[in-house]
Design brief:
By secondary structure, this protein is an all-alpha fold. It is built from four helices and no strands.
């Protein structure tokens, strides 16, 4: 994927510019409040679709580079995230601020 820095001027153009225009219009019509926009997105059928790779691999065949963002790209977890995940799962993560490293 292209860079999103510099307001997209250095990257690739968006795949669905009409969608961005529509979302901007919705945001303006709701007096720039994000909550109605978030609610609309989260309650949409598109947002609730599964991105699991099971026997149905049509999206992967149609869009192997994930240009249309049909799933979250995999990425490595940092050591801190791995440590905190293990401690949380074990139920021993200390959440007090200013504790030992």
């Amino acid at each position: 994927m292209g860079s999103v820095a510099n307001f997209g001027l250095n990257g690739q153009p968006p795949s669905h510019p009409q969608l961005f225009d529509w979302l901007a219009t919705e945001l303006i019509e709701n007096q720039w409040r994000m909550k109605p926009l978030h609610r609309m997105i989260v309650l949409s059928a598109t947002y609730r679709q599964s991105s699991a790779l099971g026997s149905e691999t049509e999206p992967q065949v149609r869009d192997p580079a994930n240009r249309y963002v049909w799933r979250m790209n995999s990425r490595r977890m940092t050591a801190e995230v791995v440590r905190d995940s293990i401690l949380t799962t074990a139920g021993v993560l200390d959440l007090t601020v200013g504790g030992p490293d």
